[in-house]
Amino acid sequence: MSEATTEAEAGVRRRIAEVERALGDPDDAANPVGFAALLSADERFEWPAEAERRLDAVGFGAEFVPAALGGRLARADVLARTLRPVFRRDVALGFGYGITSLFAASAVWAAGSRGQRTRLAELMRGGGRTAIVHHGLAHGNTMWRGELAARPDDHGFTLDGRKDDVVNAERARAFVVYARTGEERGAASHSVLLLEDNGTVRHRPRLLPRRLSTGMRGCRFAGLEFTDCRVPADALVGERGQGLELALRTFQLNRSLISSVLLGSADTVLRAAVRAAETDRERRPGGRRPAVLASAFADLLLCDAMATAVLRSLHLFPDSGHLGAAAVKYLVPDLVREDLEELGTVLGAAGYRRDGAQGAQGFLQKLLRDLPAAGLGHTGTAACQAVLVPQLPFLARRSWGVTQDPPDLLFAAQEPLSPFVWESLAVAGGQDHLVAALLGAVRRLRDGGGAPAGHGDDATRAALRTIAGTFVTELAELRERFRVVEPDGRGLGTSARWAALTDRYVLVAAAGAALGHWVRLDGTDPFLADPAWLVLALGRLAGRLGKRLPDPPPGCVQRVYGEAVARFRTGRAYDLHGAAPAGPGATAAGPGATADGHGRRGRTA
Amino acid sequence: MAERGSVAPPILMASPDGPWLRVRESVAFFGNAVVYANWQQWRSAVASGPELRSLLGNHDWQRFSALDKPEVRYRFAVSRMLMRHAASAALQVLPEAVELAYKPGGRPYLRGCDQIDVSLSHTLDLVVVGLNRLGRIGVDTELTRRRLRYSEVHRQMCTAAERRRLARLPESAQEAELLRTWTLKEAYTKALGQGMRMGFTQFGFGPGGRELQTPDGDAASYGEWSFGTFGLDLTGGPAPDDHYLVSIACQDTGHGGAEDTSVGSMLDEGFLGQVVDLLGRQEG
Question: Is ipTM over 0.85?
């Protein structure tokens, strides 16, 4: 690793540690922003104001402002990692604090005038909120239903209409509005307007009462009603009719980010489940719990590999990032939700606790409520399908088997990248780098490549080759199916068959990301270099394709479970970095716990 | 009067002819629909050979082919037909266009169409399918004549709070309440995709089987779960006198879901238009 990489990574870890320190030990019952306090605030539909104050104190708002505008945002993958300390404590805090401000501001970072960018950057660096008023989307939930119309006139635009469920509607100091400016349906129907709190907006929107929500109960959702609201002409962001293009462009970052930060939330539940299993081990040894915990851990690593590659692809392949972003958002919230449900069997009754007395155990039910709100459920998947479905026939013909194996930099999670540039993102076309990574990885495995030998046993490596092969077979079937489609995209949307094939494609792309990551490992981390986790995770993905595979070789589950326990004891994250959050009380270690106790047993290398 | 999010009463499907429109109405109005059939009555509608294979899809066809007893094969085929017909009504596509797949824990789902969650259960002649557009759903059935002795099973099946409540009841009421509790627990854990893997003493139900509770009897959800238990009678078949119990667990994740669940409208025209136009330009 070069000196520059080491230095960059050290800087990232310092910032993460700073955020962790600001929020303190979440397991400490006396911590006013610990799990107990956050669960109790959630119960009362109360916004965690103290946590917000602490984030303000470390200038967290700057994370969402591009470095070129005086903020800290330069790398998409680093932003995701910096947000995880927040999301591992509370999804509502993560959304309400800043991520929705970023979703709003992205259109301005992408296409705003110099003045708009400078003013919004200043507002957000200072901890101010920006709210987003979405346009109406097919199969939209309340956040995505209904929309505003902006009528162009002499002085600019007149806005009318009503939108329910706007996060931070009550306190945002700027609004980014996606409004209909054209009668026609289709590409140029919408425009983006930036409503600033500077006296230029007349007949301001009426704030409707707060609506209590099932998920993210602490977040303040409220409706906005615009009646004859006059907005100056220079409120327009970018060009007239550019709204949907800007949505498709900025959604790429949103989708990849959400997928990545939710892994931080899932980390908390896995940690609580490992704690429960370990505490209970004396009483009820063994059983199926190690397998459940190892599988969930393996899934999180696979998701992290995919999310990381996709976030980095926004820098490296801005012409193609839309594909991976749609795929990762389609898969990860769903996978995480199922893992949480499975972890519920380990947590048992403790998963329903609300008092936070058992650390984070009650976090399970809260996260199960928060997740559908964060991942948007079907509204979110349908929006991702709209991006993928019309493009897959093209990719099947032009890219699969043709596009080169991507460069190592795509997967090298600690390597610096050139700054993120919104303007460079395309919304269609490009190459399928995840499928290319799958085919590249399979070639490397066949030629004896992959992470350095000596980690994991021969049986596990052989199992990995077999599973990798099933995804190649699946890709070949998909290619045949998509090649016969006339790629004008029109009839595609109406068939459940194409939706099902797209679902299959996403599983193949995920396998490509994980395998692409693994074959490039240098062996620095012996646990990751052992393919045991990948065999477990890919085996589950293949199961979702309806493929029946032999059980993983003996020892796989035990090795992954061992690492899960070791990471629990040393307070290290359940992600590709496995770093310990520095700061007081960051480790969950109890008396007598050591890093190489029970956890390392069963390790073969 | 039942309202949105509450469990809709089951609808009988006497044959593959429906009434499927009622499924669409129930899903649109309540958010969920539960349909049931006497598989013996559907027997004649089960196709054979390539037609059945195409309807079942590869995965279920393999499972079907591995079954030995004709009874079991017919019931399997009818349960999948009922599922596909019900799903096709909600999605507004042909039954054979729906791909029924299974998650690693065994939970069925409609591949690529997550606007609807599904669940399936059968007992003797009865097949039941549940659909929900607001969140997870689980259904479970039992014969009402099934005897469950409280003294034999309460340790494995009941929480402390449930035992306090059930222990006071006379024997027949006790057994009836136990059966309802059992099917509710099956339905809820099926909704979570876990089945028996979730310990039945780790959560419980309050009086009337309406509220999810912790083992101590405290509320365990904030109302995102609704439950219902219905008695069903089947006519026809070899045992027309049998009565069945069906329990349903239905989740509402909030945010309203999409009232329109049809596949034809799910891809946003604006987004699709952008992507297709740009692709067209690159082609041109």
Answer: yes
Query: Would you place residue A75 in the very low, low, confident or very high pLDDT band (cuts 50, 70, 90)?
Result: very high
- Residue-wise pLDDT tens digits, A359-379: 577 788 888 888 887 777 777
Q: Is B254 on the interface with A (CB under 8 A)?
A: yes
| Surface-to-core class of residue B51, CB atoms within 10 Å of its CB (0-12 exposed, 13-18 middle, 19+ buried) | exposed
Contact criterion met (CB < 8 Å) for B258 and A487:
no
Q: Hey, how many other C-beta atoms are within 10 angstroms of the C-beta on A491? A: 10
Write the pLDDT tens digit of every residue in A453-479.
777 788 999 999 999 999 999 999 999
Chain region(s) in chain A for CATH 2.40.110.10: 131-241
A593 pLDDT tier (thresholds 50, 70, 90): very low
Tell me if A373 and B99 make a contact (CB, 8 A cut-off).
no
SS3 state at A320: coil
Assigned token pair, B125: 């002649």
Are A495 and B97 in contact (CB < 8 Å)? yes
Comparing CB atoms, the residue among B264, B269, B276 nearest residue A185 is B269
Q: Looking at domain A3-129, which CATH architecture does it have?
A: Orthogonal Bundle (1.10)
Cα–Cα distance for residue pair B18/B24, rounded to 1 Å: 11
pLDDT value, residue A603: 30
Q: Which H or E run contains A87?
A: helix A76-87
Residue B3: which residues within 8 A CB-CB, separation 6 or more?
B30
For chain B, the DSSP string reads: ---TTSPPPPEE--BTTB-THHHHHHHHHTSEEEEEEEHHHHGGG---HHHHHHHHHHHHHHHHHH--SHHHHHHHHHHHHHHHHHHHHHHTS-GGG--EEE-TTS-EEETT-TT-EEEEEEETTEEEEEEESSS-EEEEEEETT----HHHHHHHH--HHHHHHHHTS-HHHHHHHHHHHHHHHHHHHHHTT-GGGS-TTSSEE-GGG-SEE-TTS-B-SSS-EEEEEEEEE--SSS-TT-EEEEEEEEE--STT--S---GGG-S-HHHHHHHHHHHHHHH-
Q: Does A547 touch chain B (CB under 8 A)?
A: no
- What is the rounded CA–CA span in Å between residue B26 and residue B10? 10
Mean pLDDT calculated for residue range A509-521: 97
Nearest-CA distance from B1 to chain A in Å? Answer: 23
| A131-241 CATH choice from 2.30.180.10, 3.30.70.920, 3.40.120.10, 2.40.110.10 | 2.40.110.10
Domains of chain B with bracketed CATH: 11-283 (3.90.470.20)
pLDDT: is A202 or B227 the higher one? B227
d(CA B95, CA B99): 9
Closest residue in A to B62 (Cα–Cα): A546
Q: How far is CA B97 from CA A264, A410, A564, B107, in A?
A: 37, 37, 41, 20
Contacts of B255 in chain A (CB under 8 A): 141-143, 165, 213-215, 372-373, 376-377
Q: What is the mean pLDDT of each run of 10 residues along chain B (284 residues)?
A: 78 92 93 94 84 86 92 93 94 89 91 94 95 95 90 92 93 92 96 88 92 91 92 74 92 77 78 78 67
User: What is the mean pLDDT of the segment spanning A586-604?
Assistant: 35
Count of Cβ atoms closer than 10 Å to residue B4 Cβ: 15
* Residue B235, number of CB atoms within 10 A of its CB: 9
Return the residue in A213, A214, A369 with the most chain B beta carbons within 10 A, the one to mutate for interface testing. Answer: A214
- Residue A270 Cα distances to A123, A203, A351, A425, angstroms: 37, 49, 11, 35
Residue A352 has its nearest CB partner, among B112, B214, B264, at B214
Cβ–Cβ contact A338 with B under 8 A: yes
* Closest residue to B256, CB basis, from A142, A342, A383: A142
